[in-house]
Batch of 4 targets.
Target 1
Amino acid sequence: MSERLDPTEPPVEQPAEPAAVRLRLDLAYDGTGFAGWAIQPDLRTVQGVLEAALGTVLRTDGPPRVTVAGRTDSGVHARGQVAHVDIPGGLIERSRGRSRRPVDEVLLTRLGGILPPDLVVHALTRAPDGFDARFSALSRRYTYRICDDSARRDPLSRAHVLWHRRALDVDAMAAAAKPLVGRHDFASYCKPRPGATTIRTLEAFSWSRPVDGPDAGLVVATVRADAFCHSMVRSLVGASLAVGEGRQASGWPAELLAARRRGVGVHVVAAHGLMLDEVSYPADDELAARAVLTRARRAAEDLQHPPAAGDCCG
């Protein structure tokens, strides 16, 4: 006879499923073949391709949702993009299979085997407590590259460098950029989006013409801010080009800023010259506090300055 269970005995406790694990992903991509970061119906996007690959590697019922530090527009490139994804702990451990290597290494290798060549995950690590790829970030740094010298025009870099037919006065462009640095309402340089703010802290905006290195001879903008609203960087570059060509005085970009109203004079340059180079974060023990502060500030600004532009790249 089979042994019967005593109904008076307490049930045997099953081991708890490990809590969700947050993974940090450091990635790079050539934006040429993508319709931007965010998922869009029937379009190839970075988020869509990455989430599908994660779903395949982890064997989830559906693609896991990824949160990114900065959503890039169609055609914009990234060398230093950061994202995070939350995965059930048990699922992560099971995805190791028979490998004895750390599970993070296993996942990174498998991702590299199925992702297309224009999207690379350089690192996959367990995120420290409090990490949020978007809200924990201190700043985002972009570079915009322009070639205005036919002798230096390189067909191999045509997808990453803007070709400009007229010679540019870099000193005038640099002088015009200085007054824009600081905390301002950049409504004149942002495409409006309902329910979001155009107030940003522009931490750095400079123009240079390097004499050596991979950018030698190019006209290069470096732009860093706590965050960017839609088309902000490319609008700043467009205003600078008007100064560099001599069509506008060096004080014109600051006049546009003061107007706090998007006008017909603002030109949004092509996306392919723009590169997200770096997203910076505070020390691990400050990550959670930074995320709380960022969320609170964004919410307060949205209430005080409707409507405005959303969080996106240039």
Target 2
Amino acid sequence: MSPVNPAKKKRTRTYDPARTRAAVLAQFGHVREVVGGLSEDQLARPSGLGEWSVRELAAHLSMVLGSVVRFLGEPAPVKAEVGLLDWPFATEAHAGQVAEDTRQIAASAPIGELFERVAAGIADALPGADDERITRTRIGPMRLADFLVTRAVELVVHSDDLARATGVDVPFDRQALAICTRLLADALAVKAPGASTEVRIPPYAVVQCIEGPRHTRGTPPNVVETDPLTWIRLATGRTQWADAIEEAQVRASGERADLVGVLPILG
């Protein structure tokens, strides 16, 4: 399998596997608690994601860890063929199948039952699984540790979707929010390589991107700064660049500080 995205020259950030596991489980727990308290009326509302209802969004959130349980139950591939920074650029190609799977799962059982099954499955499968185990995924074989990083991203992104669709606060695990912010920032640096623009997302990430004169000292001539949740919404297309600028959610200075041409990153 050829690489999904040419990120070979980009040094991949490392994530502590134990902290990643804890973050994934914590965020899944937050989602499970919120979903368990939703009424049928809330579950029937539009999710804001295409034609999905909140019920289907919730079913998709159960799938985020359900896929870990399913793939750990299969024989391990021989080697990893997909790196962590390939993943953000490969998800769009599988969106149709994901949507179909989500609809089927949402119709298969009550939402609470779906989460109970996944929670039981992950409690059984994950503790004994080696972080270096190669795991099949939709986009190709990955290290389990890397796949769990992607699960943290999915959980955070869709936790925000769930909160906006229902009006119910969904807490963010701090480590899960940090993982999501950092991976999407690093993906920006892969998509728009360069060092003319510094993107700051305090307190979690700073990356350089965009071709042009390289900054070496002092204050960079091109700076973008925003908060983690705004960044995640920009990177996933939930918020448009122009709207974020107009609403002062992003501070951008310099002629190369306009990211509209490279966003979104994750579809």
Target 3
Amino acid sequence: MPLPYVLLSAAVSLDGYLDDTGPERLLLSGPADFDRVDAVRASADAILIGAGTIRADNPRLLVNSAERRAARVAAGRPAYPLKVTVTASGDLDPGAHFWHTGGDKLVCTTDAGAGRAARLLGGTADVVALGPVLDWRALLEHLHDVRGVERLMVEGGGQVHTQLLQQDLADELQLVLAPLLVGDPAAPRLFGPGAYQDGRLRLTETRRIEDVVLMRYEPTAPGTGPVPTPADRHWLRTACELAALCPPSRTAFSVGAVVVAADGTELARGHSREGADPVVHAEEAALAKTDPADPRLPGATVYSSLEPCARRASRPAPCAELILRAGVRRVVTAWREPDTFVAAADGSGVLTGAGARVVVLPELEPLAKAPNGHLLAG
């Protein structure tokens, strides 16, 4: 089930503390970065914070630029993104700025908290009960399917950021590092203890903004089961982009593939007709660059823009078999192979029949098809 793109946004001091460190709030960013945050808010369909942040900071969470609000309206969007808060108890201050500024508001809570929140807020906000406990995946599905949220900006607090990262639900972390040392042992840290993804996050951008530094990170560690993670979507998008590098052909699909270890390390990538080989397939090209004895292969995931082939005339072994021989037991793809060249192709069936797991992300199918439009027309 598609979920919104979830962007976590936070500012921290050099010693890792958030900017709500006492009765007089310590502002870690400056005017230029506040304007950047305003632009990110304007790009979002919804902004989410925890109820604790409302109590501690009493934020308005507005798009402050009149020009950006006008641009949203011109594009057919409301002037302000939907404002969302999460609370298990429903204990909310009806006098907080959050409820009386901006556009629509939504409270996501538990069955027990819904009645209390509704009584406190009256008609100020919509209240949605998500079950006996807070379920982040159900919350994101509601935002996407019911509220039409494609891009969600999460501004805190630390518990919210922690839970989304630990549950593999965050697509991006935008972290601003301020040149301050707080040194207060009671000050809240950005993330709490617990289990996070294996390996390292991928740094996608660094930018100096006055005296602070913006760093953007993406998760890298593949999922382990049938439910796709943000890292799965990132890697499969990379595979689809590799397909655009293929020399055009009237007799074969353009496909990209990436092999990624369990800790998020890229082991190899390839694309169809790579190099001087006019018949090489993407998965074949990528796996040829790995060491067959690499102990990371059995825990790796192969990302392929098109379902790995089950039969082929150009080589003795189809790609589904090559993947199984390599020891890989998880494949993520965007597009099931049509009958264009091979009738009733079923690489997924070959893989699952041998005990591998195949995850299909249909939301990326248009990207996988893009370099193959000339084969699909009509």
Target 4
Amino acid sequence: MQLPEILIPATPVQVLLPDAAAALPLVCDSPHSGTDYPADFGYAVATADLRRCEDTHVHWLWDAVPQAGGTLVHATFPRSYIDPNRDVQDINPAMLADAWPGPTTPTARTLELGMGLVATHTPARQPIYARRLSAQEVAHRIEHYWRPYRQALGEVLEAASAQGPRWHLNLHSMPSNAYERLGRVAPGPLADVVLGDLNGRSCGSEFTGRVAEGFRQRGYTVAINDPYAGQDLLRQFGAPSRGHHSLQVEINRALYLDEHTRELLPRASCVREDIASLLQDVAAYVRHAGAAHPTPSSVAIAH
């Protein structure tokens, strides 16, 4: 198969900043809502099926982040090309045509579902490729897509925590058949919103509870860590003991999206308005908590 020439993307990641005077230590990122499919992707499945991997329109739902004083980071490329929410070693060597030059530590999810750093299967278990990828292809995706996203997010979070604690919302959407997709029996209806904090390891319980209550006050059902507890970005950037709070937010796609066509439903604008309102509550919490609870490092510097 002859693939197009490998090109370097112009803008793999977008960073939307608040007005400097209103800036808060609040960062939101959407790693899976990108829809710019690179010409060298070389996939062999229907585009409509591949697009079911997307968290389509999530960064649009949360586009009021800068108005609330936060920074919004989002990928422009699709997660099925390379997933910035997976560890760089989460590669199944069986998908490669030649040897990988470094270590690989594929997770069970990667081996069973094909949803690692570079996905091999769609959510419906369809093979994405009719070939094996070269190590050079995967290395290119890491260098020009995965790494710029992680670097941009890391720099924004580092800047946010320069004077004290920080709060990070990792934004996603989930399919309405999430339990089925995960191969699990649903214990009941899927919640409208699932918050993940790695079972308390990436975020303080107070912030998780505040965000949950904010959604509930607006009429949404909320679950915590079920069926999604969080992934690699939370593991890398969440450290509650240091004042670094990272919380994953999953919105049920059936609330705002036609899951087959990827088109917005009439209710989508209402969901977006509710999120904009919620962000004002989150901003108020961050202003209060940031002033009341400096990090241990900032206290040490002050002394």
